[in-house]
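User: Batch of two.

Assistant: Item 1 of 2:
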Amino acid sequence: AVILLKNNYLAKYKEEKVVVYASALLFENNLDKEVQKIIYITVTDDILFKRALLRGSLSAEQVKNILSKQLPDEKKLPFCDEVINNNGDIEFLKMQLKNTWKRLTNMDLII
């Protein structure tokens, strides 16, 4: 189902110069081979866990279950073209996203 979604998604935007495909399980579903560049946004496990709980839609057990399905960063990082640290506030994240986007596309990112 994930590959079908990806193929439909990419087909819809095939004329675009840049297509952003967000996937928490990109490596786990072997979709990393289907993209040209990987921008990985990382965050420490404790911050990720807290943020997931703050959304209020999942229990602690559900969050732990979801996170247990993801590969650890050290397995993913060697295959990433860019890495963005999301341990800070939203403004720091936006700044990193804008800088990375500009470096890769030579286009401004409006957030």
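Item 2 of 2:
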Amino acid sequence: AATAATDSPPSMTTATAAPTLPAPIVFSGKGPQAAGPFALDGLALFKFEHDGAGIYSVQLLDATGKMVAILFSGVGKAVVSAAQGAEAGMYVANVNADGKWTLIVERLAP
């Protein structure tokens, strides 16, 4: 014989969905190159991997070519990250490196 369930149904709550963030932008290359252009508006997380032995640096430039920030600077192999705020606009990352590199830009504002 079937028995009736005496438990109350599970309660439901509704949550506000978090805004969807833009997909990360991935650039890769070898040696000195410009990565971009790409759009920024607010805070972004930059991740850089360098597989060379020499000096590397990554500068963030605005649409006019003016340097906004030095994102990374060092020597040898590296896996580094940094957050940087930016006004709405188009940007380019100026990568100086002697080896293979990857730059990932994660925009943290929708």
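The CA atoms of residues 28 and 36 lie 11 Å apart.
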